[in-house]
Write a structure and sequence with these properties.
By secondary structure, the chain is of the alpha+beta class. It is built from eleven helices and eleven strands. The chain starts with a helix and ends with a strand. The structure holds 2-acetamido-2-deoxy-beta-D-glucopyranose (NAG) (3 copies). Residues 35, 37, 39-40 line the site of one 2-acetamido-2-deoxy-beta-D-glucopyranose (NAG).
């Protein structure tokens, strides 16, 4: 029975044109200056497109990769859109700073709405980008709720757990629940839509399901993997909530303490997801969007797989430029000669070696105050050596 199942666990080549990875194209908002005004729509409720009014949602659909579902949600609740835009910036900046010194440095995220192959082939890197996007959107919305910026939501409801210390729940907790719910609607629904549509097409037309090489990845498998990684991103958010407290009482005493659940800085979430990226597991995805760990024989437990990021295609080493794989190569990247981590010249330059470039800076220095208000400086030349991969 299991073998039959495995026979079905194959990659599907779909003969029609497919658009991978549509649900993260909104990350391109990071580079936009869209004004999310309600006024243009209020004159014409719900008829932004047909009436010829260029609503920001229409522009987002045309230029910033919003898919239909997202544009609809945008028109329906436009006041949240500035926060979506902020989430795009947050996701990109977090990803970039976490991967800054690595061979793959998250630069492809800046090409959105165009997505290079490293973000469409269901790679480990794609897994990270989906998870961080989902996390960043949840984060931004949860914070927007608790800061009172949205009228759809307020502070998080009080945790069910009875406090064990000398405190009571109060204050205003970050509303991760609302944030996660919005993220499911804005991102996950796009992938779910893809899954449903393709599954139906396969069932209807009985298209030939072919065994394919590692490189040919079926749309449904990718959608299922994306959905999983989105969930991981949100789960990390929920798990990162921590209790923060404030004391009240006469003259600084802590007679009354109120506590609430708050999120840590996003950089912390980025690092947690990096661990999940490092430990990501390879899976098969079947035509109907089931994810099955490749090493079932080694008993990768299903429970474990829900905690980790998953991917389908093996990543290249990102050492040399290869447009087909979405690898930019590391020629010319700055490396560090005195470390042994991913940023070291050894690893970053992939054994090709490096050259030393002398960087001269001219600065004002050794500044001294004379009398009260007069500053005199000297001109200093500082030479630093930087190392660049060959
Ligand atoms: C939209 O808002 C900006 C400022 O936030 C304003 O300058 C602009 O005129 C507004 N546009 C419309 C169409 O109301
Ligand atoms: C990221 O890597 C690309 C390709 O190697 C490079 O062009 C770019 O400058 C890098 N970005 C940063 C911030 O190091
Ligand atoms: C190289 O690594 C060392 C040790 O971590 C660090 O002190 C130094 O600032 C790094 N150099 C550069 C150019 O990043």
């Amino acid at each position: 029975m299991a073998k039959v199942l495995y026979a079905v666990v194959v990659y599907v080549v779909l003969v029609f044109f497919v658009n991978f990875g549509e649900s993260i194209k909104w990350l391109s908002l990071q580079q936009s200056h869209l004004q999310w005004n309600l006024s243009s729509l209020n004159n014409n409720p719900g008829r932004g497109i047909r009436s010829g009014v260029r609503s920001p949602c229409t522009i987002a659909r045309r230029r910033y990769g919003f898919v239909k579902i997202q544009a609809k949600l945008c028109r329906h609740s436009m006041e949240v859109m500035p926060h979506v835009q902020a989430a795009a910036v947050l996701a990109s900046e977090t990803c970039r700073s976490v991967f800054m010194n690595r061979r793959w440095n998250c630069s492809s995220i800046f090409m959105a709405p165009f997505l290079p192959p490293d973000l469409t082939r269901a790679t480990r890197e794609q897994a990270y980008v989906y998870a961080i996007s989902s996390a960043a959107l949840t984060y931004t919305m949860a914070r927007a709720c608790s800061s009172g910026a949205l009228y759809h939501c307020t502070c998080a409801s009080k945790p069910p757990a009875v406090p064990n210390g000398q405190f009571q729940w109060g204050g205003c907790g970050d509303n991760v629940q609302w944030g996660a719910q919005f993220t499911r609607r804005f991102i996950d629904n796009v992938e779910k839509h893809t899954l449903e549509k393709r599954s139906k097409e396969i069932t209807d037309s009985k298209k030939v399901v072919k065994m394919q090489s590692d490189e040919a990845v079926g749309t449904n498998a990718v959608a299922a993997v994306n959905l999983h990684n989105n969930r991981v991103g949100r789960k990390v958010m929920v798990e990162s909530l921590r209790t923060q407290c404030k004391c009240h009482g006469v003259s600084g005493s802590c007679n009354i303490k109120t506590c609430w659940k708050a999120l840590p800085p996003m950089s912390e979430i980025g690092v947690r997801l990096l661990e999940k990226y490092t430990n990501a597991i390879k899976v098969y995805g079947d035509a109907f969007g089931e994810i099955i760990p490749e090493k079932t024989a080694k008993r990768v437990k299903k429970a474990a797989s829900t905690q980790l990021l998953v991917y389908i295609s093996k990543s290249p080493d990102y050492c040399t430029k290869d447009d087909k794989l979405g690898s930019f190569g590391t020629v010319g990247r700055q490396c560090n000669v005195s470390t042994s981590g991913p940023e070291s010249c050894r690893q970053l330059c992939c054994g090709r070696g490096y050259r030393t470039v002398v960087d001269e800076k001219i600065e004002r220095c050794q500044c001294k105050f004379y009398n009260c208000c007069y500053v005199k400086c000297q001109i200093c030349r500082t030479k630093t050596q930087v190392y660049e991969c060959l």
